[in-house]
């Protein structure tokens, strides 16, 4: 059969291919901001699930709310400053009442931000009808617990407007970390008129929403994988907002993120982890910021009574080389953790010393230092005391690549250094792991906690007797007493409270009731001309301070 | 023919009912809850939330409630995206997925027919060998691997096309090529095999004897008659493109429905999982139904049953 060289179909195909190529060349990969110094392009790991501050539950939504809304106070880097409030208020009535004067600020539609906007928003979040997953954070505000349990009405919450710009907040008991709590998105005001107009569609699209923060969210609807924050000219501090636009792109594939960064579509590629972070750790654009979250091991003392023996727990902890764990396994995206409380989160109000770097805390590092010889000795003593020759443990861990590697590393070290220990790894999805921990169906498990507010008690409370998150069921009377004093008796005495928390940390670390492994970090690639990405104690970035040089 | 179509539609609805039921119970068997803040919620709060969403009701009650709503076209609201109706979520994300799917089908089918035809015409030549190699590669390289390679070389290294994102037609080219490889290869193989047979048939010889040119013979007789079996593979191919697009959408950061499906499974977003499963099922069984009907039209023996007279 003769091959016909000028067949129409071939011509069509060639023309088609040429057209496709041409289309690509006409619209080549472009820098998303076109080199504009007032526009920043940033990656996001996940889309915004909601812009309703009463309903948001994740860090990505919190960042977006932090960009566009504002509460009484705001963190600028590490410093807490008045935002809608005129000043940081001092409590009265034994630490149980705050009277706060508000600045005359505006929503993006020109409405004034009033005390009533706070009253409305706070009552809305504790109302069981709202079904907020974060209503528990209001615990301590007068009547909040009773309201969330459905025993009292939302209008009985301890907040009232004394005038359009004057707010009174009453507490059930003093909350030592009240000021930092007020910077969280759950305590932002809401424009009642707007929320009621949009009804159950509030927070699902930017259309119709109003903002009182540095930026406004534009042309966004829920599920969008890209969104843009534009400068809010109605913002009371707009003159100090340096960028006109912040564009966010949801990137889930690390190679894609890297390619977009290298082709200058992204100015900053955030949330690097695993192999990507390992490969890029030595890049000049690579940086990490400590997050207020700790990854730790829980040992189920109820199911495996032998684990009540402190020497066995201490021995297990001493087999972990936390520096290797952070540098090799986590690719420098983690910081070795020697305490359940993360570093760079809370400082001594008097001396400014980091909570985990006090003399006591540094001395306690002997319980978390890599020491296989001592580990073996303690293990053998512990095994003798509990009358055991061998111990078989199932290690429940998340099935992510990084956690699998971490589990194998721990299994290898512990089985090598602890004679008679046999560990079986059970890699399961995140939700399965949570369920097993909550129901006590585990011997040993990885766990993590990220701060709702930057206070040591937010972590130390996890280990108190009867706490729902204390899955390992470690219990220590002395520890419980110190924690109770820190949150009640000495709540108004910063010095005594600090000491209570230090004592609690000492007991927990000494006992290794919970075995800390590493503190999480946010790893990123940032172009050299981008400045001002300073993480706040609440784990967000104050985008009002970010600029391009 | 009408009886045949009605019978097929009945089976389609039955299939959908079975799929929806199995998915519902499997989904309820997933560990954990759909609450994103589950780790921090108190037991009392969990109880309250379960009551609000009806998870404290017996499973069979939940099933009948869901099915009742489904009959009214209500797929519920998403957990991941608070209060967003699942139907709206699908509507918002279907555009890019449909565009990609259609483009991949068109590119794959057209190029597959061309490649297969050329290979058959030049049987046992280097052209045929090359087409075979291209087909084997297309069938054996997964779409997501091809996506990564295309992105790296054509997007990042040579910068001919955008690396990722979704801002216009040019952004759809690389993902389209990644998705089109499999249908292109399949169709090329089918086309070649079928056309080799057709080219040796009596009516081709007759056409030649009647003085038709090579071009006329190929276009009027060979290609046309070789296309019939292609209809058979279009259905399964469309399905493979739909499933393949989940990963490809994720790689190219495309706001499609496939990407959303993966996210909903990861977050235990029950209503969205159910909604998207039903949506995909409707799409698949509809494709199969169309193929069956087309086949019934093309070959009457099929609708009359085996051995029946035309």
TrEMBL record, chain B:
GO cellular component annotations of the record: plasma membrane
Cited InterPro entries: BPD_transp_1_N (IPR045621), MetI-like (IPR000515), MetI-like_sf (IPR035906)
UniProt domain ABC transmembrane type-1: residue ranges: 94-295
Membrane association type: Multi-pass membrane protein
Biological process, per Gene Ontology: transmembrane transport
Record Pfam families: BPD_transp_1, BPD_transp_1_N
Main subcellular localisation: membrane
Localization per Swiss-Prot or TrEMBL: Cell membrane
Keyword Metal-binding annotated: no
Keyword match Transmembrane helix: yes
Keyword tags: Cell membrane, Membrane, Transmembrane, Transmembrane helix, Transport
Transmembrane segments annotated in the record for this chain: 9-27, 100-121, 133-154, 166-185, 227-252, 272-298
Superkingdom of origin organism: Bacteria
Family under the similarity heading: Belongs to the binding-protein-dependent transport system permease family.
Protein name per UniProt: ABC transporter permease
Source species: Fructilactobacillus cliffordii
Upper classification of the organism: Bacteria, Bacillati, Bacillota, Bacilli, Lactobacillales
